[in-house]
Amino acid sequence: MSTHPCFLPSTLGERKEFVLLFVGKNSPFAPLLLGYIDQAVLIDTHSHLDFPDFDADRENVILRAMEAGVTRIISIGTNLQTSRAAISLAESHPDIYATVGLHPCEVEEASDSTCDELEKLAQHPKVVALGECGLDYHRLPSQSLPSFDSTSVATGGTAPGSEDHLLADAEIKNRQAIFFQEQLDLAVRLKLNMVIHQRDSWEDTLATLKPYSGRLRCVFHCFSGTPDQARQLFELGHSISFTGIATFKNARNLHESIRQTPAGSFFLETDCPYLAPEPHRGKRCEPAYTRLVAEKVAALRGKTLKEIARETTSAAEKFFRFTTLP
Ligand SMILES: [Zn+2]
């Protein structure tokens, strides 16, 4: 049983037990206290709390999350350094948990021993999943090479779509695929679920995952796709999670996906310090804003905040195995 700064346990069930133990089942105060306890309890299932963006006020950020009902936070690893930092945050805060993984945009810095190191880190009792890992074709190397214009030809620059660009892109895609697959194998071996990052790589990500069907469950974090894409994932036994993008007016596909996603198949997250929801769009995001995401999701699905909190918290507890953690 973990406690948050109010010295109450994190899960709703545990909180109720605690209150009943404290005041007694027959006390006239019991219904009153239980009503107070039964507030929206949320989990930020994807944050980057170890990032330097939070160095100046991390403890206050965590406190604000707890005050907003975000009683548990998962800090996500993106390489060995951030995976270690996520674990060390989890060690110093009872209600913070960690994942360890190698993000596709970090593969250039990784070495042959990275996955062995991840395997060691994954043994930590507060590591609740592997990831984030996957494929990201949004920022391939070709875009950082000199672009084609008359001066670049004169100085030996290459045209977009030229052999150099294509080779550089193919090389990085191949490296991403190798590390993705290694981490998938690791997850199967360690019986851990996975946090997937996919950007502009839908077909390849699904093709890579296909052979693992039935052996591995994943959450496609920061899902912003269509209802049809979401269905493809559910058919393979995977889940999705929604960020502050849900609050953006122009996210129409995503709004439809949020309406149609079956309860139990989705969680909430902030992906902080990125993707702050309205009305904080463009500013630093923080775990407390999970509540704003929850409110928007509740409005789109015609439910109350408490109902959405209950559904998403229970789904995340199962996926991230909070129930079986020490
Ligand atoms: Zn992330």
Word description of this protein:
It is a single chain. The chain has helices spanning 12-23, 30-37, 58-67, 80-92, 114-121, 150-154, 163-190, 202-209, 227-235, 252-260, 290-301, 305-319; strands at 42-47, 70-75, 96-100, 127-136, 194-199, 218-220, 239-242, 266-268. With 326 residues, it is of the alpha/beta class. The protein has two domains: 1-19 and 28-38, no CATH class; 40-324, Metal-dependent hydrolases (TIM Barrel, Alpha-Beta Barrel). Helix 8 links the parallel strand 5 and strand 6 (218-220). Helix 1 packs antiparallel against helix 2 (30-37). It binds zinc ion. Zinc ion binds next to loops. The site of zinc ion (ZN) has 5 residues, from loops.
Layout of helices and strands, plus pairs?
Elements: H1 12-23, H2 30-37, E1 42-47, H3 58-67, E2 70-75, H4 80-92, E3 96-100, H5 114-121, E4 127-136, H6 150-154, H7 163-190, E5 194-199, H8 202-209, E6 218-220, H9 227-235, E7 239-242, H10 252-260, E8 266-268, H11 290-301, H12 305-319
Parallel strand pairs: 1-2, 2-3, 3-4, 4-5, 5-6, 6-7, 7-8
Helix pairs in contact: 1-2, 4-5, 11-12
CATH topology of the largest domain: TIM Barrel
The biggest beta sheet is recorded as: 8 strands, parallel
**CATH homologous superfamily title of the largest domain:** Metal-dependent hydrolases
Structural class: alpha/beta
The dominant shape is globular
Poorly predicted parts? 1-6, 148-156
- Return the CATH class of the largest domain: Alpha Beta
Helix count equals 12
Work out the number of β strands. Answer: 8
What is the residue-mean pLDDT, rounded to a whole number?
89
Q: What topology, given as strand order, has the largest sheet?
A: 1-2-3-4-5-6-7-8
Helix share, percent: 40-55%
Radius of gyration: 21 Å
Distance between the termini: 8 Å
Q: What is the N-to-C succession of helices and strands?
A: HHEHEHEHEHHEHEHEHEHH
